[in-house]
Fold Squalene monooxygenase.
Amino acid sequence: MAGKILEYDVIVIGAGIAGCAVAAAFSRQGRRVLLIERSLREPDRIVGELLQPGGVNALRDLGLADCLEGIDATPIEGYHLYWQDDEASFWFCDIDGRKPEGRSFHHGKFVSKLRDAVCSIPGVSLVEGTVTELLRDEVSSRVLGVVAVCSTGDDQMEMFYAPLTVLADGSNSNFRSQFTSSKPKAQSRFWGLEIADARLPIPRYAHSVLGRGPPILMYPISTYTTRILVDIPDPIFRDLGNSSAVRAYLQERVAPVVPNVMRPQLRLAIKSGRLRSMPNAWMPSTRNTTLGLIMVGDASNMRHPITGSGMTVALKDAVLLASLLNPADIPHLNDSDAVLRAMRRFHWKRKTHSASLNILAQALYLLFVSEDKNLAIMQRGFVRYVQDGEKRFAEPAWIMGGLTSNPFGLFYHFLSIAVYSIRLHLRQSSTLFGWILALGQSAGVLVSALGIIWGPLVDELRR
Ligand SMILES: Cc1cc2nc3c(=O)[nH]c(=O)nc-3n(C[C@H](O)[C@H](O)[C@H](O)COP(=O)(O)OP(=O)(O)OC[C@H]3O[C@@H](n4cnc5c(N)ncnc54)[C@H](O)[C@@H]3O)c2cc1C
């Protein structure tokens, strides 16, 4: 094998959201960081376009807030929901006297800004290259560094060494399976299009269409461009068979249910726009126990993107990780015991921000994709709960925005919505027989509600 031997404090594999954030956090602490990215071209993907307000705050904590400037990002103040023939809005209420705002943008432009910002921090070396192998100690299995094919003209293979390697190579991680038995599970894909020259009905709001067919998400990614993502379950896609059938499906099932103002431009986009898809996966995190290695971002933990929280989790993880591995507490990252102790704390401490976002994403998705009659009662209750105003939605909106860290608050509100739905349902019955029937259905609502939140909750708690 040709090449030099180079040494750093930390090697980060992948300069996506998580990799850039971790590289920035460690280098600001004076660590020498090597960030290796397989392509430094601007990414062109349909992921990571809406950053929750909590993610904006984390970006500020990392000293990277400027990355939201100059990319035509739109402030996001809330969400507007269409559900069957009803609708409701919720927004991020003031918290600590400040109005929280998210941002939506073109993913590639944001990532390019992050890479430029990270490159300018002293102590960071950003290299274009593909990591092909992790170097491991034969006896202890400790990760010692990486082998990478670098794009330096002659595609030279190089070895890089560091006491700590951070795996941030995303959802399709090539190396994850060496360290965890967790595998991403996807039951559906988001199919995405860009709609040109269409303004959403409420500026600065993301819009969701639910209960009118497949779940649909829309938000601006620039002043004149709106992203639409449509969740199509895998069995339906298998029946459709190819992307022209998906276009026909979108014309038939999606165009008629979006707001009128969007329809003509959406029909055009479905006809001739670039149609792309990404799997929507769920993967609970597992504790890092390998010496010399940490996994972050989608390589370690994923949730359904319906709530747009993956980047927020990754940025908050970077802030926490750097604080736990602070040089004041751990001057040398080859102090394996200290790093492993910090990783144990990281695994449980991160749940204060990640668990509620992970569980919320899965539970909301399962609630609105379900065809269970009991859950239809809860879907209606959810919309009415939101219509009841800030006293109901303020805290759940903060949870969704990554602004509060209270997993039990989420459980409380989920059950409150179930009870609220039951009360609404019982009130609709005017006869004794109808009331007895509604009571039976109400028990079903509670069981179904617990059924959808239980799985993700247990996944979060047991690892
Ligand atoms: C359809 C969809 C929509 C989404 N929408 C949102 C949203 O609106 N808001 C939100 O917050 N989250 C969203 N997410 C989730 C979000 O995109 C991810 O959580 C986030 O991008 C994870 O960042 P990451 O750095 O872990 O991975 P990535 O962003 O995928 O970065 C991984 C990087 O590693 C590089 N890499 C991979 N292998 C190697 C290798 N061997 N050597 C060198 N480099 C390598 C890749 O080139 C890439 O640059 C969405 C996800 C999906 C699927």
In short: The longest strand covers residues 124-136. The two ends are 39 Å apart (CA to CA).
